[in-house]
Design a protein that fits this description.
Layout: E1 2-5, H1 12-24, H2 34-43, E2 47-54, E3 57-66, E4 71-78, H3 87-102, E5 107-109
Parallel strand pairs: 4-5
Antiparallel strand pairs: 1-2, 2-3, 3-4
Helix pairs in contact: 1-2
């Protein structure tokens, strides 16, 4: 297995494979185009996308971003055939290393209710935070 930080030159085939993985893991929403998220993360200096390739097949990914205060993890995805083998831990550790180098002292993530992956995070040292998240759609 090979871990790769995607760069702006990532091919359309690679980008499509990442989005397909995200969709297959139930991480996308119709109001938030994953292709745009991926393009912005690859192009931005405060984010990275790490993918796991096995025989050139996309088997995992995580998007890490640093907002100047803390690091955030998004789109942690592992191909269902590779779950339980420690790949999520490897991806998270790689993202955390990148975030620490960027200056983050804390890493956070949000998990939708009902996501079975929520049970993974305490095993990786993450604690549930007592924080309410409020949102508002902006016109435009």
């Amino acid at each position: 297995m090979e871990l790769v930080h995607l760069e702006e030159g990532a091919t359309a085939k690679v980008r499509s494979a990442v989005v397909t993985l995200w969709e297959g893991c139930g991480l996308t929403r119709p109001w938030n185009p994953p292709e745009r998220d991926l393009a912005q993360a690859i192009a931005g200096p405060t984010s990275t996308v790490v993918v796991a390739l096995e025989d050139e097949r996309m088997v995992g990914s995580v998007l890490a971003g640093y907002d100047g205060h803390r690091g955030w993890l998004y789109y942690l995805a592992v191909d269902p055939t590779r779950r339980g083998a420690g790949l999520a831990r490897t991806l998270v550790t790689t993202a955390e290393t990148w975030l620490a180098r960027a200056g983050a002292r804390k890493v956070q993530l949000m998990v939708r209710e009902g996501n079975p992956a929520a049970s993974l995070y305490p095993h990786l040292g993450y604690e549930r935070q007592d924080t309410a998240v409020y949102g508002r759609w902006l016109e435009g």
